[in-house]
Structure formats: C-alpha cells, structure tokens
C-alpha cells in the first residue's frame, strides 16, 4: 500500500483496513518529545502515548501537569523513515521503447 504524502489523509475510497494501517503508521512516525535545555527524557511514538492514555489516563494527566510545572516543553516531531523502494520491473517484462513518430 502506498502511503499518502505527510499531513494528508488516505484516499476516500480506501478500505477501512487501509485507513487503520495508515493511522497506525502515522502514530509511529510522529513522536511526542518532552525536553528542557536540550535534555530529552521522553521521546515516544504518539501511538504509545495514546495507548498509555487509554490504559492509565490519570497517570498521563499527572505526567503532563508535572512536566508543565517543572518547565519542560512538549512538542511533536515527525521521524519519517524512508519507505523501501518499490521493486523494479525485470528487463524481460519492461515495456519496449517506442520509436519516435513522424519520421
């Protein structure tokens, strides 16, 4: 499945499974970073933060309040890995070149 460009939603005609895979991928490449003075004690994928928030919302809320009170800055970053290149067409299956027309 080809991933859409960053920041774009999947095509409207894609299946539910394609949308779930796209959301899962986006959650893994977006990281929540908590930092102060160049020190980054937390750098987790957004998916992990969401799962933690669902399982223990009180713990997530306490962590956010403590981080804000102690002066830490929270932001999201995109850590996009390069997707593997599509397989190349073997020479035997490659379409033949067309001669220039008009000669």
Number of strands: 3
SSE pattern, N- to C-terminal: HEEHHE
The end-to-end span amounts to 42 Å
- Global shape: elongated
Sheet of most strands: 3 strands, antiparallel
How many distinct helices? 3
* Computed structural class: alpha+beta
Mean pLDDT across the residues is 77
* Arrangement of strands in the largest sheet: 2-1-3
The radius of gyration over CA amounts to: 22 Å
Approximate strand percentage: 15-25%
Low-confidence stretches: 84-92
Helical fraction: 25-40%
Q: What's the short story on this structure?
A:
This protein is an alpha+beta fold and 103 residues long. Helices cover 36% and strands 19% of the residues.
Textual characterization of the structure:
By secondary structure, the chain is of the alpha+beta class. The chain has a domain at 16-78. It has helices at 16-29, 46-55, 57-69; strands spanning 30-36, 39-45, 73-78. The chain has a three-stranded antiparallel sheet with strand order 2-1-3. It is elongated and about 70 Å long. The protein starts with 15 loop residues before the first helix and ends in a 25-residue tail after the last strand.
């Amino acid at each position: 499945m080809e991933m859409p460009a960053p920041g774009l939603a999947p095509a409207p005609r894609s299946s539910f499974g394609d949308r779930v895979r796209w959301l899962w991928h986006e959650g893994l490449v977006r990281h929540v970073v908590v930092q102060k003075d160049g020190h980054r004690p937390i750098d987790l994928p957004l998916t992990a933060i969401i799962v933690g928030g669902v399982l223990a919302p009180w713990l997530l809320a306490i962590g956010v309040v403590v981080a804000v009170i102690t002066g830490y800055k929270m932001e999201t970053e995109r850590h996009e890995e390069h997707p593997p290149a599509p397989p190349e067409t073997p020479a035997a299956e490659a379409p033949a070149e067309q001669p220039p027309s008009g000669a």
